[in-house]
Design a protein that fits this description.
Layout lengths: L8 H10 L9 H13 L2 H33 L10 H19 L5 H19 L17 H23 L4 H23 L4 H26 L5 H46 L4
Helix pairs in contact: 2-3, 3-4, 4-5, 6-7, 6-8, 7-9, 8-9
Length: about 280
């Protein structure tokens, strides 16, 4: 137990941001060569250097996108495998960039250049690993499918992201804080559904209807807030946010109460079994 590492979300977040940064450094010599070719008036050298530099940079961009998706996939209990396989696409692009550079700029033959490209492809996968291939189904209960849970949570997550962005554009600080609390508490509900998909049935209307409704109203308020909306409209929007905050809190309490009820049932069932065995 002494070797166990405590999960640190902030450290994981920083690690995800830093991972793959070194890929952007690979084409730096090509950038220097391209500048030198431009200074010498070597247009073909400039063109080849620009193409090769672009390929390496494209590989880094694709890889970083793949790393972000993989980090999100790892964090979630229920998730789709990233599609397409972005890390493999990045490895292929890096291999093409390496082979093209060896052939066009370093004077190697086609066969040797292809081997360089293959080496870069394999090295990328050895360093960063393969893409996740399977969807994570988590603890799916009877009466609900993994596809159903994933689709609902993805849609809800998208709505939350939109609501968070809308909240950042609200001028009134109290309203903006209220929206942030709504987003935080609703994300907690989504995390709870991932841990226990049986909560999906009770949360379906909340995530599909209520969340979409508050997002629609918030976007409508954003369209008129710069036109100095009247006090009645402001108060109405503020009251709606307060009501929705209470709705989120009530729904959290409902799910928690259901979890407690299920635990009580499980304890009673266990006590009955132990009594039958003469142990309890």
């Amino acid at each position: 137990m002494s070797n166990a590492k405590r999960y640190n979300p902030q450290l994981e977040k920083i690690s995800g941001k830093v991972r793959g940064i070194g890929l952007y450094l690979l084409p730096m010599p090509l950038a220097l060569m391209t500048v030198i070719a431009l200074w010498k008036g070597d247009l073909s050298g400039v063109l080849m250097g620009a193409i090769e530099f672009s390929l390496f940079t494209l590989a880094a961009i694709i890889a970083r996108h793949g790393f972000r998706l993989e980090q999100e996939y790892t964090r979630r209990k229920i998730a789709r495998a990233p599609r397409p396989p972005w890390k493999s696409l990045a490895a292929a692009t890096l291999g093409i960039a390496t082979g093209a550079t060896a052939w066009l700029s370093s004077g190697y033959g086609a066969g040797i250049s292809a081997l360089f490209g293959l080496g870069a492809f394999v090295s990328f996968h050895l360093l960063y690993g393969l893409d996740p291939r399977r969807d994570k189904s988590g603890n799916i209960s009877l009466g609900v499918t993994a596809k159903e849970v994933i689709e609902l949570l993805e849609k809800a997550g998208g709505k939350l992201t939109e609501l968070e962005r809308a909240g950042n554009r609200i001028h009134e600080l109290d309203y903006a804080r209220s929206i942030r609390r709504i987003v935080t508490n609703t994300r907690a509900i989504i995390d709870g559904i991932e841990a226990d998909p049986s909560d999906l049935a009770r949360s379906r209307k909340f995530l599909n209807t209520y969340l979409a409704g508050i997002l629609r109203v918030t976007n409508s308020y954003l369209r008129v807030q710069d036109g100095e909306p009247g006090s009645d409209l402001k108060q109405g929007f503020g009251s709606l946010l307060n009501d929705f905050e209470r709705t989120v809190q009530d729904h959290q309490a409902e799910l928690l109460e259901n979890d407690r009820f299920n635990l009580d049932v499980q304890i009673k069932v266990l006590e009955t079994q132990l009594n039958k065995e003469g142990i309890y």
